[in-house]
Amino acid sequence: MQLQVARIGKPHGIRGEVTVQVLTDAPEDRFVPGTEFVVEPAASGPLTVSSARWNKDILLLGFEEVVDRNQAETLRGARLFVETEELDEDDDEGWYEHELVGLEARVGSQVVGKVSALNTMPVQDLLVVTTPGGDEILIPFVEQIVPEVNIEEGFILLTPPDGLFDINSDEAAAPEAEGRD
Q1: What is the pTM of this model?
Q2: Of 152, 157, 153, whose CA–CA distance to 127 is shortest?
Q3: Local structure of 171: helix, strand or coil
Q4: pLDDT by residue (tens digit) across 35-78?
Q5: What φ, ψ does residue 92 adopt, rounded to 5°?
Q6: In the chain, where does DSSP find H-type helix?
Q7: 47-55 and 104-107 beta bridge pairing
Q8: What's the rounded Cα separation, in Å, for the pair 178 and 165?
């Protein structure tokens, strides 16, 4: 089984380093020199870590196969995966993005969209829910708002605060225009 651990961002410097969005709880174990990643798109990989260092809160990786900024630029947006034997089913601490993407988002029994991504942030993670109308709503991935994640039945249950699903909609901007003719 493959587990996504990072997404490559922009190049850093002229020697082929790249910034990465870390998608693992154990970056110190995943990004050590010599680690080989499966890459998506496959034409960009595999990639072998030659260096890993932190620049403030951003992880910078160098790869044996990438020697300059031009090569690093071609990796922008690529996803890094590791091969894993089996995920620990007893781990109740969280979910991986691949487990959440595609789940129905429900408020009570009403389907309000589908989970399309998980944004891992320094303070709290955000679920990206795409509504049937195509709007993307960012949902704080906290127990008060997402009290149930049911992988087996394919849904998450939401208890959003009033207005959460209206924030990005056209109707939210409309009150200013109302009353003008």
Answers
A1: 0.52
A2: 157
A3: helix
A4: 899 888 888 879 999 999 988 888 899 999 999 999 999 998 88
A5: -95, 10
A6: 27-30, 69-73, 97-100, 170-177
A7: unpaired
A8: 20
